[in-house]
């Protein structure tokens, strides 16, 4: 096995996203040649096609954003609601020293609970829906003694839901596999499939070199027929030729 994980994929597996969550409604690109030395590296070789559900036209996800800006207070942020759902259900976040430190603590609490994703700059917490969920609009608010201002989901960055992205089955005995839907492509160039890159649904990941945040989730591996990390119906690709992924799975090591 020559699976290589990007920094974003390793971060996602170590957080509440997990493998299934971070690649929800993602897609796979097939390339010629040998895979790069790292999932953070730029894509190499000739792109032969894009694996989607039943070769359907892919719409990548633009993940809507909203914000919470901590402006003052003294005790705690009791709840944060997005579309009426409290996204910090494990408890209030105390006011801590300054608005920026409180915002950082709130960001950690949101990510720990895993209902939404959050990042922080100064006193501003930026919210995004989980990958593949297609959150486009939702009201943002909070309760508690800490004062804040808000930008609703979709008002910060308008969202676009993913279409024809791939999904994975729940893991069994540490192994996660493709679902029963057809994963396939029509060739866009001539060549021999050598490796693949599995991307998240995020439209901002172009496959370029990653050297700093945002660390996008990617999984690289080899292509084969009857073997390899992604097993194709055929490795020989021509323009418009149909190809399917018959087997794809990832195994979490036991030791």
SSE diagram, text form:
Blueprint (H helix, E strand, L loop, with lengths): L3 E2 L1 H7 L4 H5 L4 E6 L14 E7 L11 E8 L3 E7 L2 E2 L6 E2 L4 H15 L2 E6 L2 E6 L10 E5 L2 E5 L23 E3 L5 E4 L4 E9 L18 E7 L5 E3 L3 E2 L4 E10 L4
What does this structure look like?
There is one protein chain. It contains three helices and 18 strands. It has helices spanning 7-13, 18-22, 99-113, and strands at 4-5, 27-32, 47-53, 65-72, 76-82, 85-86, 93-94, 116-121, 124-129, 140-144, 147-151, 175-177, 183-186, 191-199, 218-224, 230-232, 236-237, 242-251. The chain is elongated and about 65 Å long. It has two domains: 4-60 and 162-251, no CATH class; 65-151, Alpha-Beta Plaits, CATH 3.30.70. A hairpin with a 2-residue loop joins strand 8 and strand 9 (124-129). By secondary structure, the chain is mainly beta. 11% of the residues lie in helices and 37% in strands. Strands 2-3-13-18-16-15-14 form a seven-stranded mixed β-barrel. It has a four-stranded antiparallel beta sheet with strand order 8-9-4-11, covered by helices on one side. Strands 5, 6, 7 and 10 form a four-stranded antiparallel beta sheet that branches.
Descriptive keywords:
single chain, 255 residues, mainly beta, Alpha-Beta Plaits, 3 helices, 18 strands, elongated
């Amino acid at each position: 096995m020559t699976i290589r994980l990007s920094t974003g994929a390793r971060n996602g597996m170590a957080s509440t996203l997990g493998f299934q969550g971070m690649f929800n409604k993602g897609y796979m690109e097939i390339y010629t040649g040998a895979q790069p030395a790292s999932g953070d590296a730029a894509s190499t070789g000739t792109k032969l096609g894009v694996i989607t559900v039943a070769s359907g036209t892919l719409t990548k996800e633009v993940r809507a954003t909203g914000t919470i800006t901590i402006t003052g207070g003294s005790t705690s942020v009791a709840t944060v609601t997005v579309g009426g759902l409290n996204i910090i259900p494990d408890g209030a976040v105390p006011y801590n020293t300054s608005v920026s430190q409180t915002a950082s603590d709130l960001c950690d609490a949101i990510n720990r609970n895993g209902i939404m994703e959050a990042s922080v700059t100064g006193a501003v917490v930026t919210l995004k829906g989980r990958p593949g969920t297609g959150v486009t609009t939702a009201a943002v608010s909070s309760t508690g003694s800490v004062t804040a201002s808000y930008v609703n989901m979709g008002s910060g960055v308008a969202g676009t839901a993913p279409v024809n992205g791939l999904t994975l089955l729940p893991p069994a005995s540490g192994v996660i596999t493709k679902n029963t839907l057809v994963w396939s492509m029509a060739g866009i160039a001539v060549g021999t499939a050598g490796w693949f890159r599995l991307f998240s649904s995020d439209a901002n990941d172009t496959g370029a070199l990653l050297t700093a945040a945002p660390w996008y989730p990617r999984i690289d591996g080899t292509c084969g027929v009857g073997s390899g990390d992604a097993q194709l119906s055929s490795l020989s690709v021509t323009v418009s030729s149909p190809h399917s992924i018959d087997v794809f799975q990832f195994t979490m090591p036991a030791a």
